[in-house]
Amino acid sequence: MKKRVSLKNNSKKRKVNFKFFFFLFIFILFLTITFHYLLSKNININNKILVQYLLQDTSPYMNTKEKTRKMSVVNLLNLNYYAFKEVKKTKKEPKKIEVQQTEPLIYLYNTHQTEEYSNSDMPYSINPTVTINNYIMKEVFEKSNFKTVVEERSIKDILNINHWNYASSYKASRIFLEDIKKTYPSLKYFIDIHRDSLNKDKTSITIQDKKYAKMLFIVGLEHENYQANLNFTEQINNRINELYPGLSKGIYKKSGVGVNGIYNQDFSPATILIEIGGQDNTVEEAMNTSLAVSHIISEVIKQNEG
Fold first, then answer.
1. How far, CA to CA in Å, does 253 sit from each of 66, 216, 220, 229?
2. Residue 83 domain-assigned?
3. CA distance to 168, 247, 254, per residue, from 208 (Å)
């Protein structure tokens, strides 16, 4: 009788254990599927955070010894952690940039903030936009002792508030220009950064085994002071042609029916519009161009400022 009871109890225990492990297995399977599903979706990382990561010494994009510069899963997870924490804690603290210029001199903005680059070299479908150029250029300008302001407000918000369509984006960025000038009267150089919509064969170049996104300057001729903007743009473009032959596609002067013709360049004698690469260019290519161009712009500004 005791043996029968014991056998029944053991049988019940086996059933309980089987149910426990079965539900545990289902739970683990559910977590695994959910985890991989979330990874397959876009990870929205602010472009400022992305550029701060890319400019680190440990970033594969800054390692010139490697021919293939793609972020590893570990690095991306570190980037993801950095994005959520906003400040990534590392053993080596980055050196603080000491800026002698106390008042801002340069303003970087994007009339078309949502223009994207290719995410082919970015894991987990991170979609970098044209705004990455702002933070790369700011890094260079401030190392040259030119305090720089990057516009982080949304053009889309201005369009929505005023019930304007996308074609009114320059009206929206004009609001930012006028407001920032009131906030920082010292601002003198205004740089609007875009990207082109041509195919990659027309927006890419390799110079000394380094890949770049080609660039183009746009100058509107339909305002009285266009010559000052044109002169400033020519200074930069000429220097680019000297140091990086083929990188610049030149200066496209626009006027006439069906074009803007102003692009807010009547705002100041040094308001320029630069297109860096196209939708098929990678972050690495755009970054290389931004670094090169910002060094040249710094050089021209130093000459102009005496």
1. 39, 11, 6, 11
2. no
3. 41, 12, 32
CATH of the domain at 102: 3.40.630.40
Q: Is the distance from CB of 290 to CB of 136 less than 8 angstroms?
A: yes
Strand partners, 108: 150, 191
* Contacts for 102 with CB less than 8 Å, ≥ 6 apart: 147
Residue 283 lies in a domain: yes
What local confidence, expressed as pLDDT, does residue 147 receive? 97
Answer whether 244's CB lies under 8 Å from 237's CB: no
- Is 46 within a domain? no
Query: What residues contact 196, with CB distance under 8 A and at least 6 apart?
Result: 202, 203, 214, 216, 275, 277, 278, 279
153: containing domain: 90-305
Q: Are strands 106-109 and 148-150 parallel, antiparallel or unpaired?
A: parallel
C-alpha distances (whole Å) from 132 to each of 193, 212, 251, 300 are: 10, 15, 23, 22
The C-alpha R_g of the chain, in whole angstroms, comes to 26
Task: Write down the pLDDT at residue 29.
Answer: 76
**Residues of the chain scoring pLDDT < 50:** 2, 5, 7, 38-39, 41-45, 57-101
What domain count does the chain have? 1
